[in-house]
Write a structure and sequence with these properties.
GO terms for molecular function: pyridoxal phosphate binding; transaminase activity. One of its GO terms (biological process) is polysaccharide biosynthetic process. Belongs to the DegT/DnrJ/EryC1 family. It is a single chain. It contains 14 helices and 13 strands. It is of the alpha/beta class and about 400 residues long. The protein folds into 2 domains: about 240 residues, Aspartate Aminotransferase, domain 2 (3-Layer(aba) Sandwich), CATH 3.40.640.10; about 130 residues, Alpha-Beta Complex (Aspartate Aminotransferase, domain 1). It has a 7-stranded mixed β-sheet, sandwiched between helices. It has a 3-stranded antiparallel β-sheet with strand order 7-6-11, with no helix packed on it. Strand 2, helix 4 and strand 3 form a beta-alpha-beta unit. The relative contact order is 0.17. Bound molecules: pyridoxal-5'-phosphate (PLP). Pyridoxal-5'-phosphate binds next to helix 3 and helix 4.
Length: about 400
Amino acid sequence: MSQFIKRENFIPYNLPDITQAEIDEVVDTLRSGWIAKGPRTLKFEKEFAEYLGAKHAIAVNSCTAALHVSLLTQNIGPGDEVITTPMTFASTASTILHCGAKPVFADIDYRTGCIDPEEIAKKITPHTKAIVPVHYSGQVCDLDRIYELADEHNLYVSEDAAHALWSRYKGRLIGNKLRGAASYSFYATKNLATGDGGMLVTDRDDIAERARILVGQGMSHNAWNRYAKGGSWKYDIVEPGYKYNMFDIQAALGLVQLSRMEEMQTRRLAIAARYQEEFGKIDAVEPPFVPEFTTHCWHLYVLRIVPELLTIDRDQFIVELNERNVGTSVHFIPTHTMTAYQKLGWKEGDFPMAEKHFNRIISLPLYPTMTDEQVQYVIDAVRDIVEKYHK
Ligand SMILES: Cc1ncc(COP(=O)(O)O)c(C=O)c1O
């Protein structure tokens, strides 16, 4: 038995990595005379596209907005079906419903938590118009197989890359050489954080053109064009759009965070490597399996417990971590088990792999500002709980 000493301070599950550089850029923006969507948002779009090697990046106020607009660019609506995973956040399916289309869930590959392409294949009907694969936790979906199915059935692929900035599939960045579009989140907990924010990325001119109109109220010109010297006050509404644009205070954070991406990722990867090594030695927990084709950005560290070897379940494991001052989260409660979706006819038991995964998972603290001492403490806390409750 190891000697575990409880620390006094709580280790939060997540903290944003904000330095003086982010603070200075926000203050400069506040003093610049332009705080709405303007030059910084345009610069962030340009630099984000360059970072991924993508043709277009459209800055929006959330990944939810990006996912919604991505589907709208394809005129997806009533009578259409869109296949996605239940192991995701609310937005992935709700944006399908917001288009008036029907979400069709396909179960996950239990090894990774990502949607299983063979389950997608089983769900394709003549009504299927699109697939929304989620690069869960920073793992990447098996894209070759997904695009093969898309080609075979003429389907649009809208990648939910909320977790996947920096992740790579077979060595290529997610978001690079897209055939459809990818949606990113810059919510406070993400690898690049602007508080709230998102980006829609595509190489296709038709998608970018329509998306730019949809995210800006359907306007032919945005405010920056109109209010700049020489700009015209005239505008037209070419279709009823949405108020989905990013603004410059968010973009100020985004620009600095993007410039610090490699530095922040280096630390994330070091912490994840430590967790992988140490949790690999504990039989009652299961570190994430990372397939050969994946370069993981480690947005989340999703540890699975092995309930067969423990006298406590996942919920109690979380209570025990909390009592030891370790913050956690759970990604995700499967969408089909939520009230709104049960009302639409789904029920528990529909997606056994997602449900089995859900019953075992705990997201542990993982962020660049964690100290080595905190990382070691989280490892020791998990080990202590396993020792105490091992069968
Ligand atoms: C997988 C996934 N998709 C979409 C979203 C929505 O992102 P946002 O909060 O930026 O709208 C999230 C948010 O955490 C997410 O985890």
